[in-house]
Design brief:
Number of helices of chain B: 18
Shape of chain B: elongated
Number of strands of chain B: 37
Order of helices and strands of chain A: HHHHHEEHEHEEHEEEHEHH
Radius of gyration of chain B: 42 Å
Helix content of chain B: 10-25%
Helix content of chain A: 25-40%
Structural class of chain B: alpha+beta
Distance between the termini of chain B: 90 Å
Number of domains of chain A: 2
Strand content of chain B: 25-35%
Number of strands of chain A: 9
Radius of gyration of chain A: 39 Å
Largest interface: A-B, 80 and 86 residues
Largest sheet of chain A: 7 strands, mixed
Largest sheet of chain B: 7 strands, mixed
Oligomer: heterodimer
Structural class of chain A: alpha+beta
Shape of chain A: elongated
Strand content of chain A: 15-25%
CATH topology of the largest domain in chain A: BirA Bifunctional Protein, domain 2
Strand order of the largest sheet of chain B: 27-28-29-33-32-31-30
C-alpha cells in the first residue's frame, strides 16, 4: 500500500472504533510488530539508497508514525469521554427538585435596599414604637391641637390615650433626644391611618423617615442627598425638583418630585414630602435651633415597593397570599 | 379649586403668557397645579334679546311659550320651554345658523306646529357651565342686538389647583391671592383691590352685635344697607361663576359668592327683616336647624350659630338659614363678614356632612382684614351693577382686625446659609416687596421684614417662614445641590434591624420560607375559632371594625389565618411573619415587642416529624447566625398556655437556658380549622432573643493532625422518653477519645413503644494515631456506662 492509502484507511478505521477493545485491534493492525506502518520500514532495501534518500525516507516515516500514534491517542480520549460505559441508572434530565429559595416580603426587600444606601451615605438606622403618645406623633412635630390629622377618622386612637403612629416622623423626637446632634438617621417602619381601603389606600403601610441635623445644613444639602439617594435606588442619574408643600414639622416644606421616563413619557412624579426641620421640632427634641439646622424627609416605602415591583394594588401587601409573596424570591 | 385666567386678568396683566408656563411656574413657586383646561363658549352670532311676547300653550311634553324676541333691528319667533321666560326680560338669542356648545347647528324649523327661528339659550347651551334648565337672564342695561362675543371672551383657561397644597395659605383661596403670586412670579404689577369705602359715618347707627365667645368668633362685622338687588347679575359675573361650576341666581346672592371666589373670604347676606340684632353663640339645647337649601340638620350643643336674638339664622361659617335668606322682595340686607374658629367649622361641617365653599375657606383661617376687604368689594360691585346700595348702619365690628404690623428680623447672611446658595440682599428685598412685604435693612445687613396683614399669622411668624417666601420665589430650581460636609466616621449598625434581616435571610434563603405580613390587630372571630383570649390586650378606641379592636399580642393567630387562606394554594408550604406585638403590662403600661412566627404546612400525610425537625433546624440556624450556641428544646408542660401550646407536642425553645419561644405540632383540633388535611408545625420566637453580635466571629479550631475513627451504636429506647432523654443519658458519658457525638437516624417499628436510635461517636487523639487498643478501651468504658445507665444496644 502507498503511504497515503495507509493513512486514509487508518483514519477511517479509527472513526469506526467505538470501544477500547476495538481500538487495541486497530493499533495492532497499523502500529503493532507486524503492523502496516511498522512494516513499511521492514520492507525497504536501504542498500540501494543514497544517503540523501535514506534521510528523506526516515523523516517521512517518522512523521507518519508519529501522526498515527497521535490519532490513536485522540481516539482513545474520545472513547473514554463518550461515557457509554458509564451511563446512569436514572433519568438525569429531570427538572430541579422542589426545594427552592423562599421569599422576603417586597416591602422588606425595599427597606433593606434603602437602608443599605443610606448607611453608605453615613446615616444610621433607628427604629421605635408603633404605638406612641399623642405628644410624639403630633405635639413634638408642631402639629396643632386642632389639626384635622388628629381626628378619629384619620388616626387610630388607643383606649389608653395613645395612638398608632400615623407616620414615622413620630421617631424624630426620640431620635434627637437619644442620638443628639449632629445626626444622620433613618427610621423605617409600619404606620397606620384610619382610612377606607382601595387600590391606593391602606390603613397599614410602611414609611421611611430620614433626618439630618448639623450646623448650617441647607436646602442645597437636602437636594443633593435626595438626588444621590434616588439615583442609587433607580440606578441611573435622577433629576429631582422641590415644590412648595406644607407640613407643620418643616419650614419651608417641600414636595419632592423626580423626573422619570416611565411609560415612555418624560414627566415629573411626586415622590415624597420633605423640608427643613421646624425650629419648634428641633427644640422639642432638645436640639438648639440657634445652633443647628436640619432637613427631614418621609419616603413612602410601600409606595416605592409598588413602583419598583410593579404591584398595582396596595392591599396585596397585607394579604399574606403565597401566590403574591413567593414571587419575591430571596435573592438579597 | 379652579381659577380662571380671565378673572385673574382683572388683577394682573397676563397677556402674552402661555397658560402651560403659568401652570408650571405656579406649581414650583406657589401651589400644585393639577390641570389646565380651556373652555370654549358658543357665542358666535348670539345676541342680547328682549322678550317682547310669550304666549303659553300646552304640548304633550309640557308647557311651552310661543315667544317673540327683539334683537334691535329685527324680531324673531321661537318656541321656548324654559320656566323662567317672561315678557320684558333680557336673554341670549341664538338665531338659526349659530352653533351651540354641544356642536348643534341651529336651523329654522317648526316646533309643535309653530315657527322657530332660533333659540333662547340656557347657560349650558352657550358653554357657560352645565345648566340647561332655565334661560340665562341678562341685565336690563344691555342693549338688545348686542353680540355676546363683544361682552365676553370666547374662551377662558381654567387652572386647577390641588386644594391640599393650599391648607396653610388662606390668602390663596380666591383669585386675588393668585394674581398677587403671578404678579411676583412674572414681575407684572398687581392692580389695587377695588372696593368702596365702608360707611363709618357716626350719624349712622351701629348694627347690634353680641359675640358670646371670642374664641369661637374672633371677629364679626356687619353692615346693613338698602339695595335694589332683585336683578340679574352682570353678564361677566354670571359667566365666571357658571364657568367655575357655581350657580348664578340673583345679584345679591351672586355677589357674595363672587367675592368669596375672588378674595377667599366667605360672607353672608341676610334679609334684614329676619335679623335685627346679631347674636353669635352656641346651639346649646336647640335640636335642629334648617339651612337655606331647605334641609334640616340635627345640632350638637357646641355648634356655633348666628341668631336673631334667640332665633337661629345661620350655621356659622357653613350655611345660612332658610328663614333669613335673600328673597326676590328683599330690599334691606345685613351683610355678615366674619371669622370663625376653624376647628369648630370643620367639626360641625364634617359631622353633618355639609361641606360648603364657605366652610372649606373658614377651615383655613382667613386673615381677619379680609372681612373689610370683602364687604367693601361687595358694595362696589353692587353699585357697579346698578343696585345702588345705601347704608343704613355703620360698618360695625366686634373683635380685632389684627392689622398691626408684624415684624420678623433676619440675621445677616442667615438666608444664604439656610439656602446653601448666596442670596444678595437686593434679590431678597425685591422678592419680599413683590408679594407685599416691606423690608428695612440695618447697616450690618440684618433685615426687619414687615408681614402684610393679609398673610396668615400662623403661616408667617418666624424667620423660617420668611425663608420659604424667599426661596420659593427665588426658585428651588435655582439652588444647586451641594453634598453635605461632615466628619467621615463609621455609622453604628442598628443591631435590631440587622439581626431581623439576617433571620429573614436564613429562613427565606436557607430554609425556603416565604415572608408574609398581616395586620397588627387580631380578628376576634378567628380568635374565637382558635379558642384564644388575649390576657391583657391593648385596645383601639376606633377600630376599622368592631371585631378588630384588639391589637395582636402574638402573631400566631394571624399566621394561622394565613395558613387557612393558602391551604388550597399549595399542599406543602412554609411561611413566616416577623412583626410587632402589643399588650398591657402588669403595671397597666403599654408594651411592644417583635415576634417571629413561622409555620411548616404539610397536607400530604405524614406524622409531622420531618416538619418538626425542619423547624428545629431553622431555629438553630437563626440562633447560630447570631452567635448563640446554647440552644435547647425542652418539652413544654402547656399549663395555662394558649391553645396551640399543648404538652406532648410542644417544645420550649431556650437560648442560654431562657425560654424564648416554642416549637410544636399544632393540635389536631386547631389544624382542622387551618388545613384540609395533614399537619401544621409552628414556631414562635421573641425577636429580642437573637439580638446577638451583628458580626459574630467564630473561633478557629485546628482540624485533627492524626487520623481518627468513628463508631456507630444503635439503642432500643422508649419513644416516650425520646431523644431528649437518651441524649441526656449519653451526655453523662465522657471519654478522652470522644471528639463529638451526633444523631444519625431513628427507626420505629409500627405499633412499637420503642425505637432504634443510632448515634455516631467521632474518636481521635491530638498527639498520635489511634491504635486498636485505644478503641477497645473506649468501647469497654462506654459499654460500662450503658450498663450503669440501663441502656441496651439494639440486637
Amino acid at each position: 500500500m502507498k503511504l497515503a492509502q495507509i493513512q486514509a484507511t487508518l483514519e477511517s478505521d479509527l472513526a469506526d472504533v467505538q470501544a477500547e477493545e476495538g481500538l487495541a485491534l486497530v493499533r495492532a493492525r497499523y502500529l503493532g510488530k507486524d503492523g502496516l506502518i511498522t512494516n513499511l520500514r521492514k520492507n525497504v532495501d536501504f542498500s540501494t539508497m543514497t544517503i540523501e534518500e535514506k534521510r528523506d525516507f526516515g523523516s517521512t516515516f517518522n512523521t507518519m508514525r508519529d501522526a498515527a500514534e497521535a490519532a490513536v491517542k485522540a481516539a482513545a480520549t474520545r472513547i473514554a469521554a463518550s461515557g457509554r460505559n458509564e451511563s446512569l441508572k436514572f433519568d438525569f434530565t429531570l427538572p430541579a427538585s422542589d426545594r427552592r429559595l423562599g421569599a422576603i416580603h417586597p416591602i422588606v426587600r425595599t427597606q433593606i435596599e434603602i437602608e443599605d444606601i443610606f448607611r453608605s451615605m453615613g446615616f444610621t438606622v433607628y427604629t421605635g414604637d408603633e404605638a406612641v403618645s399623642e405628644f410624639e406623633n403630633f405635639d413634638a412635630l408642631n402639629i396643632p391641637g386642632d389639626h384635622p390629622a388628629r381626628d378619629m377618622q384619620d388616626t387610630y386612637w388607643l383606649e389608653n390615650g395613645m395612638v398608632l403612629r400615623t407616620h414615622t416622623s413620630s421617631m424624630q423626637n426620640r431620635a434627637m433626644r437619644q442620638l443628639g446632634a449632629p445626626l444622620r438617621a433613618i427610621f423605617p417602619g409600619r404606620c397606620f391611618r384610619n382610612e377606607a381601603l382601595d387600590i391606593t389606600h391602606e390603613n397599614t403601610f410602611y414609611q421611611l423617615e430620614g433626618m439630618m441635623v448639623g450646623t448650617d445644613v441647607s436646602v442645597a444639602n437636602l437636594i443633593a442627598v435626595m438626588r444621590d439617594f434616588l439615583s442609587a435606588v433607580f440606578r441611573t442619574e435622577i433629576e429631582v425638583r422641590l415644590r412648595p408643600g406644607f407640613f407643620p414639622f418643616v419650614e419651608p416644606g417641600f414636595e419632592l418630585d423626580f423626573r422619570t421616563t416611565l411609560g415612555g413619557v418624560r414627566r415629573w412624579v411626586e415622590l415624597m414630602p420633605c423640608g427643613m426641620i421646624h425650629p419648634a421640632v428641633l427644640h422639642a427634641g432638645g436640639v438648639d435651633p440657634a445652633r443647628y439646622s436640619g432637613f427631614a424627609f418621609g419616603l413612602g416605602l410601600t409606595r416605592l415597593a409598588m413602583l419598583k415591583h410593579g404591584v398595582p394594588d396596595v392591599r396585596l401587601f397585607n394579604k399574606a397570599d403565597l401566590r403574591v409573596c413567593q414571587q419575591f424570591q430571596a435573592t438579597l | 379649586m379652579k381659577i380662571s385666567t380671565d378673572w385673574l386678568s382683572d388683577h394682573v396683566d397676563l397677556s402674552g403668557l402661555d397658560p402651560a408656563e403659568i401652570a408650571d411656574l405656579l406649581t414650583v413657586r406657589t401651589a400644585e397645579v393639577e390641570g389646565v383646561e380651556v373652555v370654549t363658549r358658543a357665542l358666535e352670532g348670539v345676541r342680547v334679546a328682549e322678550v317682547l311676547s310669550a304666549e303659553p300653550f300646552s304640548t304633550e311634553a309640557g308647557l311651552r311659550h310661543d315667544v317673540r324676541v327683539g334683537v334691535g333691528d329685527r324680531t324673531y319667533r321661537t318656541v321656548c320651554g324654559a320656566p323662567n321666560v317672561r315678557v320684558g326680560m333680557r336673554a341670549a338669542f341664538a338665531p338659526a345658523g349659530c352653533v351651540l356648545a354641544n356642536g348643534e347647528r341651529l336651523a329654522a324649523a317648526e316646533v309643535h306646529g309653530r315657527p322657530s327661528e332660533g333659540v333662547l339659550c340656557a347657560p349650558g347651551e352657550l358653554g357657560l357651565g352645565a345648566g340647561k334648565e332655565g334661560l340665562l337672564e341678562l341685565p336690563a342695561e344691555l342693549v338688545p342686538g348686542t353680540l355676546l362675543s363683544e361682552l365676553l371672551p370666547a374662551t377662558d383657561t381654567l387652572i386647577e389647583i390641588d386644594n391640599k397644597s393650599l391648607t396653610h395659605r388662606p390668602d390663596l383661596w380666591g383669585h386675588y391671592g393668585f394674581a398677587r403670586e403671578l404678579s411676583a412670579i412674572f414681575g407684572r404689577p398687581l392692580r389695587p383691590w377695588s372696593a368702596d369705602a365702608l360707611p363709618t359715618d357716626e350719624s349712622l347707627p351701629a348694627w347690634p352685635i353680641t359675640v358670646e365667645d371670642a374664641v369661637e368668633c374672633p371677629l364679626y362685622t356687619a353692615v346693613a344697607f338698602d339695595v335694589n338687588g332683585d336683578r340679574p347679575s352682570p353678564l361677566r359675573m354670571q359667566a365666571r361663576l357658571l364657568t367655575l361650576g357655581h350657580g348664578a341666581r340673583s345679584l345679591l346672592v351672586d355677589v357674595t359668592n363672587y367675592v368669596q371666589f375672588e378674595l377667599g373670604q366667605p360672607t353672608h347676606a341676610f334679609d334684614a327683616r329676619s335679623l335685627s340684632r346679631v347674636r353669635v353663640g352656641r346651639a346649646g339645647s336647640r335640636a335642629a336647624f334648617t339651612t337655606l337649601d331647605g334641609k334640616s340638620w340635627a345640632l350638637a350643643p357646641d355648634d356655633l350659630l348666628i341668631h336673631d336674638g334667640d332665633e337661629p339664622v345661620a350655621l356659622a361659617g357653613i350655611m345660612g338659614g332658610l328663614g333669613s335668606r335673600i328673597q326676590p322682595d328683599t330690599r334691606r340686607v345685613v351683610l355678615e363678614s366674619a371669622t370663625f374658629k376653624a376647628s369648630r367649622v370643620r367639626q360641625t361641617s364634617v359631622r353633618l356632612g355639609l361641606r360648603t365653599d364657605s366652610s372649606l375657606r373658614f377651615e383655613k383661617k382667613p386673615p381677619p382684614v379680609y372681612t373689610r376687604l370683602a364687604s367693601g368689594r361687595i358694595l362696589r360691585l353692587l353699585r357697579e351693577a346698578g343696585a345702588a346700595p345705601e347704608a343704613v348702619s355703620r360698618f360695625t365690628h366686634v373683635g380685632d382686625f389684627r392689622d398691626a404690623p408684624r415684624t420678623i428680623t433676619l440675621a445677616p447672611g442667615w438666608l444664604s446659609r439656610r439656602a446653601g446658595v448666596e442670596l444678595a440682599d437686593s434679590t431678597v428685598d425685591g422678592i419680599l416687596t413683590s408679594i407685599g412685604f416691606e423690608v428695612q435693612r440695618t447697616p450690618d445687613g440684618a433685615a426687619a421684614v414687615v408681614v402684610p396683614p393679609f398673610r396668615s399669622e400662623a403661616d408667617l411668624a418666624i424667620p423660617e417662614d420668611i425663608s420659604e417666601e424667599v426661596f420659593r420665589l427665588y426658585g428651588y430650581d435655582n439652588i444647586r445641590p451641594v453634598p453635605p460636609a461632615g466628619p467621615l466616621a463609621p455609622v453604628a449598625p442598628h443591631a435590631d434591624t440587622r439581626n431581623q434581616h439576617r433571620a429573614r435571610r436564613i429562613l427565606s434563603e436557607a430554609h425556603a420560607f416565604v415572608e408574609v405580613q398581616t395586620y397588627s390587630w387580631h380578628a376576634d372571630d378567628w380568635l374565637a375559632t382558635l379558642g384564644y383570649t388575649p390576657p391583657s390586650p391593648l385596645r383601639l378606641k376606633n377600630p376599622s371594625a368592631p371585631t378588630r379592636a384588639q391589637l395582636r399580642d402574638t402573631v400566631v393567630p394571624n399566621v394561622l389565618a394565613a395558613v387557612f387562606q393558602n391551604r388550597n394554594v399549595a399542599e406543602r408550604f412554609r411561611l413566616y411573619e416577623l412583626g410587632r406585638t402589643f399588650w398591657l403590662g402588669a403595671d397597666g403600661r403599654k408594651r411592644e415587642a417583635n415576634e417571629l412566627v413561622g409555620v411548616i404546612v404539610d397536607q400530604t400525610g405524614g406524622s409531622g416529624e420531618a416538619s418538626l425537625r425542619a423547624g428545629r433546624s431553622a431555629i438553630e440556624d437563626v440562633a447560630a447566625a447570631a452567635g448563640l450556641s446554647s440552644v435547647a428544646f425542652v418539652p413544654a408542660d402547656g399549663t395555662g398556655a394558649p391553645p396551640w401550646v399543648r404538652a406532648g407536642r410542644t417544645l420550649d425553645v431556650t437560648f442560654g437556658g431562657v425560654v424564648v419561644g416554642q416549637l410544636g405540632v399544632l393540635p389536631d383540633s386547631l389544624a382542622a380549622h387551618c388545613v384540609n388535611t395533614g399537619t401544621v408545625v409552628w414556631f414562635r420566637l421573641s425577636a429580642a432573643a437573637w439580638e446577638g453580635e451583628v458580626f459574630p466571629a467564630p473561633r478557629y479550631t485546628a482540624p485533627p493532625t492524626f487520623p481518627g475513627s468513628w463508631q456507630d451504636f444503635t439503642f432500643t429506647h422508649p419513644v416516650a422518653q425520646g431523644w431528649a432523654g437518651l441524649s441526656a443519658t449519653l451526655d453523662g458519658f465522657t471519654h478522652p477519645l470522644v471528639q463529638s457525638r451526633e444523631f444519625v437516624t431513628v427507626y420505629q417499628p409500627r405499633n412499637s413503644a420503642t425505637a432504634n436510635y443510632s448515634v455516631r461517636f467521632t474518636l481521635g487523639l491530638p498527639d498520635r494515631t489511634l491504635q486498636a487498643a485505644d478503641l477497645d478501651a473506649f468501647r469497654t468504658a462506654f459499654l460500662a456506662h450503658l450498663t450503669a445507665a440501663g441502656l441496651t444496644l439494639a440486637g
